[in-house]
Specification:
This protein is an alpha+beta fold and 393 residues long. 19% of the residues lie in helices and 28% in strands. It has two domains: 88 residues, Fumarylacetoacetase, N-terminal domain (SH3 type barrels), CATH 2.30.30.230; 291 residues, Fumarylacetoacetase-like, C-terminal domain (Fumarylacetoacetate hydrolase, domain 2, Alpha-Beta Complex), CATH 3.90.850.10. Strands 7, 8, 9, 14, 15, 17, 18 and 23 form an eight-stranded mixed β-sheet that branches. The chain has a five-stranded mixed β-sheet with strand order 10-27-26-21-22, with no helix packed on it. A three-stranded antiparallel β-sheet has the order 2-1-6. The two termini are 35 Å apart.
Protein backbone atom coordinates (compact mmCIF):
# COMPACT_ATOMS: atom_id res chain seq x y z
CA UNK A 1 0.00 0.00 0.00
CA UNK A 2 1.18 3.51 -0.80
CA UNK A 3 -0.12 7.04 -0.37
CA UNK A 4 -0.29 8.88 -3.68
CA UNK A 5 -1.42 12.45 -3.35
CA UNK A 6 -4.28 12.38 -0.89
CA UNK A 7 -5.36 8.82 -1.66
CA UNK A 8 -4.13 5.32 -0.94
CA UNK A 9 -3.52 2.69 -3.57
CA UNK A 10 -2.62 -0.97 -3.68
CA UNK A 11 0.85 -1.24 -5.19
CA UNK A 12 3.70 -3.70 -5.61
CA UNK A 13 7.46 -3.20 -5.48
CA UNK A 14 9.53 -4.13 -8.54
CA UNK A 15 13.19 -3.43 -7.90
CA UNK A 16 13.57 0.30 -7.38
CA UNK A 17 10.13 0.98 -8.85
CA UNK A 18 6.56 0.67 -7.61
CA UNK A 19 3.67 -0.47 -9.80
CA UNK A 20 0.42 1.33 -8.90
CA UNK A 21 -2.47 -1.10 -9.44
CA UNK A 22 -5.11 1.59 -9.03
CA UNK A 23 -3.49 3.81 -11.66
CA UNK A 24 -3.17 0.81 -13.98
CA UNK A 25 -6.85 -0.02 -13.56
CA UNK A 26 -7.80 3.61 -14.18
CA UNK A 27 -5.79 3.46 -17.41
CA UNK A 28 -7.60 0.19 -18.31
CA UNK A 29 -4.34 -1.75 -18.36
CA UNK A 30 -5.75 -4.30 -15.95
CA UNK A 31 -9.30 -5.55 -15.60
CA UNK A 32 -10.30 -4.14 -12.21
CA UNK A 33 -12.50 -1.33 -10.95
CA UNK A 34 -10.08 1.35 -9.69
CA UNK A 35 -12.36 2.11 -6.75
CA UNK A 36 -11.79 -1.33 -5.22
CA UNK A 37 -8.01 -0.88 -5.31
CA UNK A 38 -7.83 1.88 -2.71
CA UNK A 39 -6.89 -0.60 0.03
CA UNK A 40 -6.73 -4.29 0.83
CA UNK A 41 -9.88 -4.34 2.95
CA UNK A 42 -12.03 -2.84 0.18
CA UNK A 43 -10.65 -5.29 -2.38
CA UNK A 44 -11.39 -8.29 -0.14
CA UNK A 45 -14.88 -7.09 0.74
CA UNK A 46 -15.86 -6.20 -2.83
CA UNK A 47 -14.09 -8.88 -4.86
CA UNK A 48 -12.77 -11.53 -2.47
CA UNK A 49 -9.42 -12.99 -1.49
CA UNK A 50 -8.88 -14.58 -4.91
CA UNK A 51 -8.52 -11.07 -6.38
CA UNK A 52 -4.89 -10.90 -5.26
CA UNK A 53 -3.88 -13.82 -7.45
CA UNK A 54 -5.64 -12.26 -10.43
CA UNK A 55 -3.91 -8.92 -9.77
CA UNK A 56 -0.52 -10.57 -9.71
CA UNK A 57 -1.18 -12.53 -12.91
CA UNK A 58 -2.42 -9.46 -14.81
CA UNK A 59 0.52 -7.35 -13.65
CA UNK A 60 2.95 -10.09 -14.69
CA UNK A 61 1.48 -10.28 -18.20
CA UNK A 62 1.66 -6.50 -18.50
CA UNK A 63 5.23 -6.19 -17.27
CA UNK A 64 6.92 -9.01 -19.18
CA UNK A 65 9.50 -7.76 -21.65
CA UNK A 66 7.65 -9.19 -24.64
CA UNK A 67 4.50 -7.13 -23.96
CA UNK A 68 4.82 -3.75 -25.75
CA UNK A 69 1.72 -2.18 -24.17
CA UNK A 70 3.62 -0.61 -21.29
CA UNK A 71 7.18 -1.20 -22.48
CA UNK A 72 6.84 1.18 -25.44
CA UNK A 73 4.65 3.83 -23.83
CA UNK A 74 6.82 6.12 -21.68
CA UNK A 75 3.90 8.40 -20.86
CA UNK A 76 1.94 5.48 -19.49
CA UNK A 77 4.99 4.23 -17.60
CA UNK A 78 5.14 7.53 -15.73
CA UNK A 79 1.46 7.20 -14.91
CA UNK A 80 1.60 3.74 -13.37
CA UNK A 81 5.24 3.28 -12.39
CA UNK A 82 6.78 5.30 -9.56
CA UNK A 83 10.21 5.47 -8.01
CA UNK A 84 10.19 3.63 -4.70
CA UNK A 85 12.08 6.52 -3.11
CA UNK A 86 9.20 8.85 -4.02
CA UNK A 87 6.50 6.67 -2.45
CA UNK A 88 5.18 6.82 1.08
CA UNK A 89 4.45 3.25 2.15
CA UNK A 90 1.81 2.51 4.76
CA UNK A 91 0.75 -0.64 6.57
CA UNK A 92 -0.32 -3.11 3.89
CA UNK A 93 -3.51 -3.83 5.83
CA UNK A 94 -5.15 -2.81 9.05
CA UNK A 95 -3.71 -5.29 11.55
CA UNK A 96 -6.53 -6.55 13.71
CA UNK A 97 -4.89 -9.37 15.65
CA UNK A 98 -1.25 -10.21 16.26
CA UNK A 99 0.23 -13.52 17.37
CA UNK A 100 3.94 -14.10 17.95
CA UNK A 101 5.23 -17.65 17.77
CA UNK A 102 8.49 -19.15 19.02
CA UNK A 103 9.26 -21.32 16.02
CA UNK A 104 12.98 -20.63 15.66
CA UNK A 105 14.44 -23.69 17.33
CA UNK A 106 18.00 -22.38 17.55
CA UNK A 107 16.82 -19.19 19.25
CA UNK A 108 14.69 -21.18 21.68
CA UNK A 109 17.65 -23.45 22.43
CA UNK A 110 19.99 -20.51 23.01
CA UNK A 111 17.55 -18.82 25.38
CA UNK A 112 17.14 -22.09 27.26
CA UNK A 113 20.91 -22.49 27.62
CA UNK A 114 21.22 -18.94 28.97
CA UNK A 115 18.37 -18.93 31.44
CA UNK A 116 18.04 -22.63 32.34
CA UNK A 117 21.65 -23.90 32.23
CA UNK A 118 20.89 -26.88 34.46
CA UNK A 119 17.92 -28.05 32.37
CA UNK A 120 17.32 -29.22 28.82
CA UNK A 121 17.39 -26.15 26.52
CA UNK A 122 13.92 -26.84 25.09
CA UNK A 123 10.87 -27.21 27.28
CA UNK A 124 8.93 -30.50 26.93
CA UNK A 125 6.19 -29.06 24.71
CA UNK A 126 8.46 -27.40 22.14
CA UNK A 127 8.65 -30.26 19.63
CA UNK A 128 4.95 -31.03 19.98
CA UNK A 129 3.32 -27.68 19.20
CA UNK A 130 4.15 -24.19 17.91
CA UNK A 131 4.46 -22.18 21.13
CA UNK A 132 3.02 -18.66 20.84
CA UNK A 133 1.23 -15.81 22.58
CA UNK A 134 -1.25 -13.08 21.63
CA UNK A 135 0.30 -9.64 21.18
CA UNK A 136 -1.09 -6.21 20.32
CA UNK A 137 -2.20 -5.44 16.78
CA UNK A 138 -2.54 -1.78 17.73
CA UNK A 139 1.23 -1.35 18.13
CA UNK A 140 2.20 -2.87 14.77
CA UNK A 141 3.81 -0.11 12.69
CA UNK A 142 5.22 0.14 9.20
CA UNK A 143 8.93 0.26 8.45
CA UNK A 144 10.49 3.67 9.03
CA UNK A 145 8.42 4.70 12.03
CA UNK A 146 10.50 5.61 15.07
CA UNK A 147 10.41 3.28 18.07
CA UNK A 148 10.04 4.88 21.49
CA UNK A 149 12.05 3.18 24.21
CA UNK A 150 9.48 1.73 26.61
CA UNK A 151 9.20 2.33 30.32
CA UNK A 152 8.53 -0.62 32.54
CA UNK A 153 9.24 -2.40 35.80
CA UNK A 154 12.59 -4.11 36.18
CA UNK A 155 14.03 -6.05 39.09
CA UNK A 156 17.64 -6.15 40.24
CA UNK A 157 18.15 -9.51 42.01
CA UNK A 158 20.14 -7.71 44.71
CA UNK A 159 17.29 -5.32 45.53
CA UNK A 160 14.07 -6.11 47.37
CA UNK A 161 11.75 -3.98 45.24
CA UNK A 162 11.49 -3.39 41.47
CA UNK A 163 12.00 0.03 39.92
CA UNK A 164 10.07 1.77 37.14
CA UNK A 165 11.86 3.50 34.29
CA UNK A 166 13.24 3.15 30.74
CA UNK A 167 14.28 -0.30 29.59
CA UNK A 168 18.07 -0.69 29.56
CA UNK A 169 18.03 -3.91 27.54
CA UNK A 170 16.18 -2.98 24.36
CA UNK A 171 16.57 -5.64 21.69
CA UNK A 172 15.49 -6.53 18.15
CA UNK A 173 14.08 -9.86 17.02
CA UNK A 174 14.49 -10.98 13.43
CA UNK A 175 11.28 -12.64 12.28
CA UNK A 176 9.04 -13.30 9.32
CA UNK A 177 5.28 -12.97 9.46
CA UNK A 178 2.28 -13.89 7.35
CA UNK A 179 -0.91 -11.88 6.93
CA UNK A 180 -4.26 -13.62 6.58
CA UNK A 181 -6.87 -12.77 3.92
CA UNK A 182 -9.61 -15.29 4.72
CA UNK A 183 -11.79 -16.01 7.74
CA UNK A 184 -13.08 -19.14 9.41
CA UNK A 185 -16.19 -19.42 11.54
CA UNK A 186 -15.80 -19.56 15.28
CA UNK A 187 -15.53 -23.18 16.36
CA UNK A 188 -14.31 -24.36 12.95
CA UNK A 189 -10.62 -25.41 12.75
CA UNK A 190 -8.38 -24.72 9.77
CA UNK A 191 -7.01 -27.96 8.35
CA UNK A 192 -3.26 -28.12 7.83
CA UNK A 193 -3.73 -28.84 4.11
CA UNK A 194 -5.82 -25.68 3.72
CA UNK A 195 -3.82 -23.33 5.95
CA UNK A 196 -1.81 -21.58 3.23
CA UNK A 197 -5.03 -20.65 1.40
CA UNK A 198 -5.70 -18.27 4.30
CA UNK A 199 -2.38 -16.45 3.79
CA UNK A 200 -1.63 -13.70 1.32
CA UNK A 201 2.13 -13.79 1.86
CA UNK A 202 5.07 -12.88 4.04
CA UNK A 203 6.49 -9.69 5.53
CA UNK A 204 9.66 -8.99 7.46
CA UNK A 205 9.02 -8.48 11.18
CA UNK A 206 11.08 -6.83 13.91
CA UNK A 207 9.32 -7.70 17.15
CA UNK A 208 11.17 -5.32 19.48
CA UNK A 209 11.77 -6.65 22.97
CA UNK A 210 12.61 -5.09 26.35
CA UNK A 211 14.58 -7.96 27.87
CA UNK A 212 14.90 -6.54 31.39
CA UNK A 213 11.17 -5.81 31.61
CA UNK A 214 10.33 -9.25 30.23
CA UNK A 215 12.61 -11.01 32.71
CA UNK A 216 10.64 -9.58 35.65
CA UNK A 217 7.09 -9.71 34.30
CA UNK A 218 6.81 -12.85 32.19
CA UNK A 219 6.21 -15.45 34.92
CA UNK A 220 3.72 -17.07 35.01
CA UNK A 221 1.73 -15.80 32.00
CA UNK A 222 4.42 -14.89 29.49
CA UNK A 223 5.32 -11.67 27.60
CA UNK A 224 3.23 -8.55 28.17
CA UNK A 225 4.53 -4.95 28.31
CA UNK A 226 8.02 -6.04 27.28
CA UNK A 227 6.70 -6.93 23.82
CA UNK A 228 3.50 -4.94 23.26
CA UNK A 229 5.07 -1.48 22.86
CA UNK A 230 6.05 -1.90 19.17
CA UNK A 231 6.33 -4.37 16.31
CA UNK A 232 7.67 -3.17 12.94
CA UNK A 233 6.83 -4.82 9.62
CA UNK A 234 7.95 -4.24 6.04
CA UNK A 235 5.40 -2.49 3.81
CA UNK A 236 5.47 -5.06 1.00
CA UNK A 237 3.71 -8.43 1.25
CA UNK A 238 5.51 -11.05 -0.84
CA UNK A 239 2.87 -13.54 -1.95
CA UNK A 240 3.28 -17.26 -1.42
CA UNK A 241 2.89 -17.66 -5.19
CA UNK A 242 6.03 -15.56 -5.68
CA UNK A 243 7.87 -17.65 -3.10
CA UNK A 244 6.83 -21.00 -4.55
CA UNK A 245 10.15 -21.61 -6.41
CA UNK A 246 11.96 -21.35 -3.07
CA UNK A 247 9.88 -23.86 -1.14
CA UNK A 248 12.02 -26.37 0.80
CA UNK A 249 11.75 -29.08 3.40
CA UNK A 250 12.34 -27.83 6.91
CA UNK A 251 14.25 -29.48 9.71
CA UNK A 252 13.09 -33.02 10.34
CA UNK A 253 10.50 -32.94 13.09
CA UNK A 254 11.29 -35.51 15.72
CA UNK A 255 9.00 -36.80 17.14
CA UNK A 256 6.68 -36.54 14.13
CA UNK A 257 3.97 -33.90 14.51
CA UNK A 258 0.54 -35.05 15.55
CA UNK A 259 -1.84 -35.70 12.65
CA UNK A 260 -3.54 -32.28 12.75
CA UNK A 261 -0.12 -30.59 12.40
CA UNK A 262 1.43 -32.99 9.92
CA UNK A 263 2.05 -31.03 6.72
CA UNK A 264 1.50 -32.94 3.47
CA UNK A 265 4.44 -31.31 1.63
CA UNK A 266 7.38 -28.93 2.06
CA UNK A 267 6.28 -25.96 4.14
CA UNK A 268 9.43 -23.87 4.54
CA UNK A 269 11.17 -21.32 2.31
CA UNK A 270 14.80 -20.64 1.43
CA UNK A 271 14.94 -16.96 2.40
CA UNK A 272 18.24 -15.26 3.21
CA UNK A 273 17.89 -12.78 6.07
CA UNK A 274 20.18 -10.03 7.32
CA UNK A 275 20.27 -7.50 10.18
CA UNK A 276 22.37 -4.34 10.42
CA UNK A 277 22.83 -1.62 13.05
CA UNK A 278 23.83 1.98 12.51
CA UNK A 279 24.56 4.23 15.47
CA UNK A 280 24.24 8.03 15.35
CA UNK A 281 28.02 8.33 14.94
CA UNK A 282 28.26 5.89 12.05
CA UNK A 283 28.07 6.86 8.38
CA UNK A 284 26.96 3.43 7.20
CA UNK A 285 25.31 0.40 8.82
CA UNK A 286 27.18 -2.68 10.02
CA UNK A 287 25.80 -6.16 9.39
CA UNK A 288 25.54 -8.09 12.66
CA UNK A 289 23.48 -11.12 11.59
CA UNK A 290 23.06 -13.31 8.51
CA UNK A 291 20.75 -16.30 8.66
CA UNK A 292 18.02 -18.15 6.75
CA UNK A 293 14.32 -18.92 7.20
CA UNK A 294 15.19 -22.62 6.90
CA UNK A 295 16.03 -22.40 10.61
CA UNK A 296 12.35 -22.32 11.58
CA UNK A 297 11.23 -25.58 13.17
CA UNK A 298 7.47 -25.05 12.72
CA UNK A 299 6.18 -23.93 9.30
CA UNK A 300 3.76 -21.07 8.74
CA UNK A 301 1.00 -23.53 7.87
CA UNK A 302 1.59 -25.43 11.11
CA UNK A 303 1.47 -22.18 13.06
CA UNK A 304 -1.92 -21.21 11.63
CA UNK A 305 -3.35 -24.73 11.90
CA UNK A 306 -2.34 -24.79 15.56
CA UNK A 307 -3.83 -21.33 16.20
CA UNK A 308 -7.20 -22.41 14.81
CA UNK A 309 -7.18 -25.99 16.10
CA UNK A 310 -9.34 -24.97 19.08
CA UNK A 311 -11.80 -23.10 16.86
CA UNK A 312 -10.27 -19.64 17.16
CA UNK A 313 -11.85 -17.33 14.54
CA UNK A 314 -9.14 -16.06 12.21
CA UNK A 315 -9.86 -12.73 10.49
CA UNK A 316 -8.36 -11.10 7.43
CA UNK A 317 -5.65 -8.67 8.42
CA UNK A 318 -4.31 -10.83 11.24
CA UNK A 319 -0.52 -10.90 11.55
CA UNK A 320 1.28 -14.05 12.68
CA UNK A 321 5.02 -13.74 13.36
CA UNK A 322 7.40 -16.67 13.32
CA UNK A 323 9.49 -15.93 16.39
CA UNK A 324 13.19 -15.09 16.27
CA UNK A 325 15.08 -16.81 13.44
CA UNK A 326 18.61 -17.79 14.43
CA UNK A 327 21.19 -20.02 12.85
CA UNK A 328 23.59 -22.30 14.68
CA UNK A 329 26.74 -20.17 14.49
CA UNK A 330 27.80 -16.85 16.03
CA UNK A 331 26.86 -14.15 13.54
CA UNK A 332 23.68 -15.96 12.56
CA UNK A 333 21.73 -15.21 15.75
CA UNK A 334 18.60 -13.12 15.24
CA UNK A 335 18.67 -11.07 18.46
CA UNK A 336 21.13 -8.99 20.47
CA UNK A 337 20.48 -11.24 23.46
CA UNK A 338 22.12 -14.11 21.60
CA UNK A 339 24.72 -12.14 19.65
CA UNK A 340 26.22 -10.72 22.86
CA UNK A 341 25.26 -13.82 24.85
CA UNK A 342 23.39 -12.00 27.60
CA UNK A 343 25.87 -9.11 27.64
CA UNK A 344 29.05 -11.16 27.95
CA UNK A 345 30.44 -10.35 24.47
CA UNK A 346 29.33 -6.87 23.29
CA UNK A 347 29.33 -6.13 19.56
CA UNK A 348 32.10 -3.77 18.43
CA UNK A 349 30.99 -1.25 15.81
CA UNK A 350 34.02 -1.30 13.53
CA UNK A 351 33.65 2.20 12.10
CA UNK A 352 33.60 4.04 15.44
CA UNK A 353 34.82 1.55 18.05
CA UNK A 354 31.55 1.82 19.97
CA UNK A 355 30.22 -1.28 21.68
CA UNK A 356 26.67 -2.52 22.00
CA UNK A 357 25.28 -5.06 24.44
CA UNK A 358 21.77 -3.76 23.74
CA UNK A 359 20.32 -0.96 21.61
CA UNK A 360 20.88 2.66 22.56
CA UNK A 361 18.88 5.79 21.69
CA UNK A 362 19.57 6.89 18.12
CA UNK A 363 20.47 3.38 16.90
CA UNK A 364 18.82 2.30 13.65
CA UNK A 365 18.10 -1.38 13.01
CA UNK A 366 17.46 -2.57 9.45
CA UNK A 367 16.37 -6.07 8.45
CA UNK A 368 16.27 -7.32 4.87
CA UNK A 369 15.52 -10.55 3.08
CA UNK A 370 15.63 -12.13 -0.36
CA UNK A 371 15.37 -15.39 -2.25
CA UNK A 372 17.92 -16.17 -4.95
CA UNK A 373 17.69 -18.53 -7.92
CA UNK A 374 19.48 -18.86 -11.23
CA UNK A 375 18.80 -15.66 -13.10
CA UNK A 376 16.34 -13.99 -10.76
CA UNK A 377 15.82 -12.77 -7.22
CA UNK A 378 12.71 -12.13 -5.14
CA UNK A 379 13.24 -9.45 -2.50
CA UNK A 380 11.28 -8.96 0.69
CA UNK A 381 12.44 -5.36 1.01
CA UNK A 382 13.47 -3.90 4.35
CA UNK A 383 12.05 -3.14 7.76
CA UNK A 384 13.80 -0.38 9.66
CA UNK A 385 13.34 1.53 12.89
CA UNK A 386 15.29 4.10 14.91
CA UNK A 387 15.20 4.20 18.71
CA UNK A 388 13.85 7.35 20.36
CA UNK A 389 14.36 8.08 24.05
CA UNK A 390 11.74 7.04 26.59
CA UNK A 391 9.14 9.66 27.55
CA UNK A 392 9.23 11.31 30.95
CA UNK A 393 6.78 9.68 33.27
Amino acid sequence: MIIRGEETSIATRIGDSVFDFRAAADAELIDFDPDVLIDMETLIEEVGADAFRSLREQAYRLLVETNPMLRDDTKMQKRVMLQASDCEPVLPMHIGGFVDFYSGINHASNVGKMFRPDMAPLLPNYRWLPVGYNGRGSSVVVSGEAITRPNGQTKNPNEEEPIFGPSNELDFELELGFITIRENDMGEPIRIADAEEYMLGLVLVNDWSARDVQRWEYQPLGPFLAKSFATSISPWIVTLDALEPFRVEGERQEPPALNHLRQPGPGHFDITLEVSIQTERMKKPQVVCRTNARNLYWSFAQQLAHQASNGTPVEYGDLYASGTISGTEQGSFGSMLELVWRGQHPIIMEETGETRAFLEDGDTVTMSGYCQADGFRVGLGEVTGTIDSAPDY
